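new request in #modeling-help
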Amino acid sequence: MTPSNSTIGIIANPTSARDIRRVIANASNLQITDRVNIILRILTSLSSMGLGHVWMMPDKSGQAAILIRHLKREHNLHHSFPKVSFLDMAVTSTVDDTFTATRMMCEAGVKAIIVLGGDGTHRAVVRELMQCGSTIPIAGLSTGTNNAFPEMRESTITGIAVGLYATGRLSADEALAHNKTIEISINDGERSDIALVDAVISTDRYVGARAVWKTESLNSVFLTFADPQVIGLSAIGGLLQPVGRRAPGGLAVHISDDIKQQKLILEAPIAPGMIRNIGISNWEVMPANKPFEVTLKGGVVALDGERELTFDDKDKVTVTLRENSFFTVDVTRCLQTAAAWGLFHSSPTTAILPEGDTCHA
Amino acid sequence: MPSNPFPLSKERLLEVYRTMRTIREFEERLHVDFSRGDIPGFVHLYAGEEATGTGILCHLGDGDRIASTHRGHGHCIAKGVDVGAMMKEIYGKKGGACNGKGGSMHIADLSKGMMGANGILGAGAPLACGAALAAKYRNKGEIAITFVGDGASNQGTFLESLNLAGVWNLPVIFVVENNGYAESTSRDYAVSVDSFVDRAAGFGLPGITVDGTDFFAVYEAAGEIIRRAREGGGPSLLECKTVRFFGHFEGDAQTYRPEGEIENARANIDCLKKFAAQVTSQGVISAAELEAIDKSVLALIEDSVVKAKAAPLPTEADLTTDVYVSY
């Protein structure tokens, strides 16, 4: 493919899928070496699409160190990869690294950011993109625990789709999709944050180990989309009243332990390996831009599976669904369009054939 | 009076703060006294890592055993070893936890389940497996915990212990206190597969990572894995990402650390400051209550130093005692 001057960013959270759910529910642990292999496959795809330069978030968790070792090995084997540059930033080994890397990638003018992580990592990238006022699209790959937002997809394919967009073979209209967010506001914006999939109101009032898994503490769940096939707290909505990722509106589900309040008991897979009965008192569609006020007096707001914002009885907490909040690379549509248009075809006379292969046409 | 949102009562929260503050002041004092030449041998200080040891060990009773490391003062204090006896031990005096014959790296108190600090890196892991095997036979729901640094996790003893614990389904927990440095060597250089959770996975054990500077994160995660071990769920690994405020050992010039790293850690990721902010902002504990603890801890440390200095040295006759343990 023709070389391109476009650059791509890769933010790979080295510590996603490391939380307590591995102990309490046999959630999987994607090992660092496998994460590096995923990145190497992305790089292979980007190289094949003609992209010459990739910015990466550095880390102190071994991922960057192993990637550098492997890239040297690949170089020795004469395999083609884009130039990989690590951002010059102080590593804190916290979510701040994701924020910083996102901001620096915006400033570097990347065409897209490929994100490896769970819902929480993707949320962090999108939050920072929105803070920067950026419309750079993201392409998500699932390496976390709760993966409602990022896709379980082979990274080679995601890399190709991103390459199609970044090199201009597909336009934004052809390659990108709009996504919804949930906006949380405490005391009319005194504190605010977003969720990509679910904002959960819990009666817990401290952040602790962050993950949410105790159903007895659930009060309500606000969802941008609700797919019956996904894992996590959004499965509660998915099994009640599915809402499509691209469909208008969201879903609010109210939960109660009080049998008098319950309309039904729902059996839902709220985390990998955790299927629980949830008492549902009510559920309703969330139209875009309509604020829902949280009635619980004191608790914590968990965003995409992680406890983030504590509030008490003096705080006013509102939850609002927003449409068209940010862009993602629509991998399925990219590949379907590319196939329909023959973007991977070339003339037999100019095609580069594998060594030793012969053309029988 | 606001209700308490935390998973511990106010009294327990005050105890936790007292423990963490005692560790901090104990270490800060040793830093000063060692530089004066008052203390024989080597000391490796735990300051900065208090939330890790305290968040884990506050779940344990005296029947639960721990195997510590060369950086063991915090583990000792959090496991309930007498501070006065520890100070005497570090000063090499009679009346110390080991009658002054062990020093900083060999403080032990079996009555508290503290099997000993350990001068040999990675050596605590097989000891904890032994204690866990005993606990399994006793069948009282007791567990064992071993601490290891990110550097010592490269030792064969540690990896062999992960295997043994998995094979025998021992009630043992491997805590990796990841402060980023193996002595002076960065983890990035020295650890080939840098996730300690991955190491556990390689032996079929679940592992999790928590912010070791947040007491409540450690407390909650440790509570789950300890409960699991007590109920027969077997071994697991807990990686606590933490920071040490001092060098590997006292006297370490720390030229390998980036400029400003320690100052930043003390300013922004001090676990005691985090804890104090969390409990006071919720109105559960007042700043005055914490200050009262600070004062009483300082008095305790001062008293322990005065008594340690005044205590006699071991005599020649003490050389032949405590060599073997009687059962």
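bot summary: Chain B has one domain: 10-312.
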